[in-house]
From TrEMBL:
Organism name: Vibrio parahaemolyticus
The protein's name: histidine kinase
Catalysed conversion reaction: ATP + protein L-histidine = ADP + protein N-phospho-L-histidine
Residue stretches making up the PAC domain: 1-30
Listed GO MF terms: phosphorelay sensor kinase activity
EC code: 2.7.13.3
Domain Histidine kinase: 41-185
Length: 185
């Protein structure tokens, strides 16, 4: 600080012990790392057998079955796919928390993608005694450039929520595309 005539008289300083705050920050960072490790480990350990269930149930659905066996196998298949989607959501929430969520656009066979969503959604609706209708409002492009995992998550969450909150009747999903210069939106 200075006098009225501008002479330097001294220095004033303030200090604060932030040791406890630093310990708390380090503890939070460790907890976050531990959570990430746990999520990735448990996801890997659960996803491996889950992929087997999805693959084998799909194979069995393509084989001759009685109507009752087919319904049971469809339930197993849809349940396993749903569980896999939940794992993806948990992993992505963790990535989002750590600001590491990336979009990875790549070519996607859109016709097959829509057919897969329609098939799984119809099975899910049937289990709840609902209808599922997919309306194509325009010709769909054969392929699009998109992060298929993220698109699948968004659509799956929308369809799942629609089914969850629909008590009777059905759910209708509309799909359309605007194609300009071989680029679909």
């Amino acid at each position: 600080f200075y006098s009225k005539d501008g002479r330097h008289l001294g220095l004033v300083g303030f200090g604060r012990d932030i040791t406890e705050r630093k310990r708390h920050e380090e503890s939070l960072e460790k907890a976050s790392r531990d959570k990430t490790t746990f999520i990735s480990t448990i996801s890997h350990e659960l996803r491996t057998p889950l992929n087997g269930i999805v693959g084998l149930s799909r194979m069995l659905l393509d084989s001759p079955l009685t109507e009752e066996q087919r319904k049971h196998m469809q339930t197993i298949n849809v349940s396993a796919i749903t569980l896999g989607n939940i794992f993806n959501d948990i992993i992505d929430m963790d990535k989002f928390d750590r600001r590491k969520l990336e979009l990875l656009p790549a070519p996607l066979n859109f016709e097959d993608f829509v057919a897969e969503i329609e098939s799984i959604s119809a099975l899910m609706a049937e289990q709840k005694g609902l209808r599922f209708d997919l309306e194509r409002l325009s010709d769909l492009p054969k392929a699009i450039e998109v992060d298929a995992t993220r698109l699948r998550q968004v659509i799956w969450n929308l369809v799942s929520n629609a089914m969850k909150f629909t008590k009777e009747g059905g759910v209708v999903m509309t799909v359309s595309a605007d194609v300009e210069d071989d680029f679909a939106t």
